[in-house]
Amino acid sequence: MPNIVVVFHSGYGHTQRMAQAVAEGAGARLAPIGADGSLSAEDWAALDAADAIIMGSPTYMGSVSWQFKKFADDSSKAWFVQKWKDKLFAGFTNSATMNGDKHSTLHYLFTLAQQHSGLWVGTGMMPSNSKAATRNDPNYVGSFAGAIGIPQFMPGSQRRYAVDFDGDQRVDLSGSVDDAIGSVARFLEQHGWQTGQPIAVQAATNGAPDPALLQAGIRPSLKVAELADKGVRADTDPQGTVALIDLVSPNKDTEYWLGFENFYVITRYNRSSFYAMSVFQLGEEIRNRLCAQLPATAGNRARYCRA
């Protein structure tokens, strides 16, 4: 079962009631921020160990409470060593009025999650915007606090990369799978995708590799042969140019991979190496299943089956 923590500050009890409802629905632990902005050592440890962190604060004067801001500032210790990197994040807020500039608070929570290199999860709920809708209906205020459409394009990416791939004379990223896939393909192509070239290959190491190799960054700049001389080996072209990727997971041995230019291109869509690796491995699984299930024609073998 996922380990989820709801960390929140409540001034008059309203945010606490929301936090309790969220925790009940998610099977989460509550981590209340005190009136002085403090959080217990046990709750800090719980945040470090969590798979997902849900943050809550009332909206005061268009932003989070000062107590929550103190918590956010104190979380810089976790930020410095990226303890919360690649965790899932979500957030909630409330105010005395229907508007109350609450979206500013959600923007603050989203930005804090990005500071920690987290992955933000929106509501995923359509608004209750019919004439019969009442204030008691789910998502009555129409808050999404997330991205747009199937490919999760932000507005700027939609303007630059979205295409009419199904030929119906309109771009529909919410309803057309063809448009969504075609738009993601255009995004990757525009960022340097190399058709037919490798994406990543797992590496073996003699213990922890030289930190300088990891600090070289996510963009390929290291030769495979040079890495082999330094104890990082992989079954691939020794003249290839790669980046050394470390995938650190709690209670598991760190995985090391060599990422090629195409791996770097995927991280332009989402900066997380875990995300890029998930995309790569999902694609490989789909390819393998198609190879096994489609008729064994020369065309299918060339397209889906590894030599």
What is the element layout, followed by pairings?
Blueprint: E1 4-8, H1 14-26, E2 29-32, H2 41-49, E3 52-58, H3 66-74, H4 76-80, E4 88-94, H5 102-115, E5 119-120, H6 155-161, H7 177-190, E6 200-205, H8 211-215, E7 222-223, H9 224-229, E8 232-233, E9 241-247, E10 255-259, H10 261-269, H11 273-293, H12 298-304
Can you describe what's shown?
With 307 residues, the chain is α/β, with parallel strands linked by helices. It has three domains: 4-120, 3-Layer(aba) Sandwich (Rossmann fold), CATH 3.40.50; 155-190, no CATH class; 200-304, Lysozyme. It is built from twelve helices and ten strands. It has a five-stranded parallel β-sheet with strand order 2-1-3-4-5, sandwiched between helices. A five-stranded antiparallel β-sheet has the order 7-9-10-6-8. α6 packs across α7, α10 crosses α11 and α11 (273-293) packs antiparallel against α12 (298-304). The model has no long low-confidence stretch (mean pLDDT 86).
Order of helices and strands: EHEHEHHEHEHHEHEHEEEHHH
CATH topology of the largest domain: Rossmann fold
**CATH architectural type of the largest domain:** 3-Layer(aba) Sandwich
Q: How many distinct folded domains?
A: 3
Alpha-carbon distance between the termini? 39 Å
Name the assembly state: single chain
Helix segment tally: 12
Strand order of the largest sheet: 2-1-3-4-5
Shape by Cα distribution: globular
Q: CATH-wise, what's the superfamily of the largest domain?
A: Flavodoxin domain
Mean pLDDT: 86
Classified by CATH, the class of the largest domain is Alpha Beta
Q: Say how many strands there are.
A: 10
